[in-house]
Amino acid sequence: MLSGIKAKNFSNKNFSSLYFFQNKLTNYCIYVVDWLELIYLLTSLKQKKMMRKKMKLASSAFLGLMLSATYINAQTVSDFENLSLPNNSYWNGSDYSGIHINGAFYGAFTSGTAVFPNVYDTAWGAPGYWSEGFAYSNVTDSATSGFGNLYASKAGNGYNNSDNYIVAQNNAIIQLSGLAQNNTVTGVFVTNSTYAANSMRDGDAFAKQFGGATGNDPDWFLLTIKGYTNGNLTTDSVNFYLADYRFVDNNQDYIVKQWQWVNLTSLGNVDSLIFTLSSSDTGQWGMNTPAFFCMDNFNDQTVNVNELAENNTVTFYPNPTTNFLTIASEVMLNSIELVDITGKTILVESNLSDKNHTINLSAFANGIYFIKYTTENQTAIKKVIKN
């Protein structure tokens, strides 16, 4: 970290922020769009000593070119396996490795062609707390309830039984870099954190049990994803319910416990993404449901809407079908979703816990559909036809 570093913010009609930095030898004046870009610039100052006295970046587009040059050869998918962790542990910025400004440490980690910011706040005193952005983890505890198990996925591991995954807070932002910048993101695998999933299942001191005492309360926990292009928030969004208790039939109520693919191609070309959480359970101070979720394999290029790691241990018959479709699996089925050709989910059947399941398609129009199914060890998609 630069010694004696100070920061001041000045308004400017062309840039979001103007930061002035000073160390013992040199003054620097830098225009940046957000604090994540600030991290990159300071890292460059520390490691490469590339910046000249009172250097001004003419625009954020130039910074984007710098990031592209840095990550041009990186893989596109962010699977987080490049991040080193001891077994059953996590990183949340508590090592104070970020840039220290006004009591908070602003850091970031990278995987593939994406940057994941992290803020660790000590403004109220040490040791501080993880206040914004992302943490990465390989914690496997999918059972223990409470805030003490914040950094665990309900799936018990990463996607496809990998080690590492990330935990995200409400309003976390991913910034794309290199080949991914200003391009289309394929999607991301998501699941609940153990903390949030168990809170919704059982209730706790702050949040209600989803469904209420009777199971009839129409509760929900929603993840909304939006994109930014050239710093401007786009109007398109993708919604994914991490829990949904709004069904007339309570047997269809569910809390996501396995990794589920969320297709993000409809957002078009973006340079960053924001992930926002909302819930039916709110109070005087906002949302009561723990505002955390987990993600893995961000922007996985091996996944598309037609086929998602289809496993030949699961069969569908008859296909094409007129009314009933049976899904037969060699392993336990957890959930099934019916998705129409536009990508809209029109039927969800969860908490199945069986190897053979039949769904009735008689109420739906003839055409092409996709069955997104989750087993105990994978999520996959199969195309089906209704005649």
Report the major sheet: 14 strands, antiparallel
Q: Could you tell me the number of beta strands?
A: 26
Give the ordered list of helices and strands. Answer: EEEHHEEEEEEEEEHEEEEEEEEEEEEEE
What's the rounded overall pLDDT mean? Answer: 80
Radius of gyration: 23 Å
Strand-residue proportion? 35-45%
CATH architecture of the largest domain: Sandwich
Number of helices: 3
Query: What is the CATH topology classification name of the largest domain?
Result: Jelly Rolls
Description:
This protein is mainly beta. The chain has three domains: 9-58, no CATH class; 90-296, Protein of unknown function DUF4465 (Jelly Rolls), CATH 2.60.120; 314-386, Immunoglobulin-like. The protein is 9% helix and 42% strand. The chain contains three helices and 26 strands. The protein has helices at residues 35-47, 60-71, 194-202; strands at residues 9-10, 17-22, 27-32, 90-91, 99-101, 104-111, 114-121, 129-137, 165-169, 172-176, 183-184, 187-192, 220-229, 232-244, 254-255, 260-263, 269-270, 272-279, 282-283, 286-287, 292-296, 314-317, 324-339, 345-360, 367-375, 379-386. Strands 4, 5, 6, 7, 8, 9, 10, 12, 13, 14, 15, 16, 18 and 21 form a 14-stranded antiparallel beta sheet that branches. Strands 22, 23, 24, 25 and 26 form a five-stranded antiparallel beta sheet that branches. A hairpin with a 2-residue loop joins strand 6 (104-111) and strand 7. The protein is globular, with a radius of gyration of 23 Å. It starts with 8 loop residues before the first strand and ends with a strand.
